[in-house]
Amino acid sequence: MMKEMHKVFGFSVRVASVLDDVEFAYDRRRRQYHSTPILEALDRAAPPNFVKVLGITKEDLFIPILTHVFGEAQLGGRASIISTNRLGEDFPSGFHVEKFRCRVVKEAIHELGHTFNLRHCKDPTCLMHYCRTVRDVDRKSEHLCRYCQVLLSDEISILPGE
């Protein structure tokens, strides 16, 4: 995943444990974790020198207006999170490791894209296209469309130190 993320964003990627416990975001009624408080905690817990932060959890995430989310991000902010919980669903002939990995990478790049001010794209093959189901994730390519790529390049060019 680090290689794919470096290819899209041009940054070195580092793995670090930033937030160990997300129980504070658990909603007993829904039996899911509210992603927004986790985002806020990730942002507070990450070292200040981290340009962007991506949390990865196995917990099922939600926001109040949706039944579930594959991830959430602070639009134009620093923190993002994805859940692998539902990305392992809907394999017709049993679990497929490479397809699962591909879904995780796509959603990681998608959520990090939001932290660079990228919004949902109308192009169903673009990584920034909104996905409601894992089939939608599977339909996306592993690339940003030309328009989103230009927007991302512009955002990266104005980062401090770039």
Give structural notes.
- The chain is an alpha/beta fold and 162 residues long.
- Helices cover 35% and strands 12% of the residues.
- It has a single domain, classed as Collagenase (Catalytic Domain) (3-Layer(aba) Sandwich).
- It contains 5 helices and 6 strands.
- A hairpin with a 5-residue loop joins β5 and β6.
- The protein is globular, with a radius of gyration of 15 Å.
- The chain starts with a helix and ends in a 5-residue tail after the last helix.
The fraction of residues assigned to DSSP E strands is 5-15%
**What is the 3D form?**
globular
Low-confidence regions: none
CATH T-level fold name: Collagenase (Catalytic Domain)
Explain briefly what this protein structure is.
The protein is of the alpha/beta class.
Keywords:
5 helices; three-stranded mixed sheet; 162 residues; 35% helix; 6 strands; Collagenase (Catalytic Domain)
How would the blueprint of this fold be written?
Elements: H1 2-9, E1 26-27, E2 32-34, H2 35-45, E3 53-57, E4 61-62, E5 71-73, E6 79-83, H3 97-115, H4 134-139, H5 146-157
Parallel strand pairs: 2-4, 3-6
Antiparallel strand pairs: 1-2, 5-6
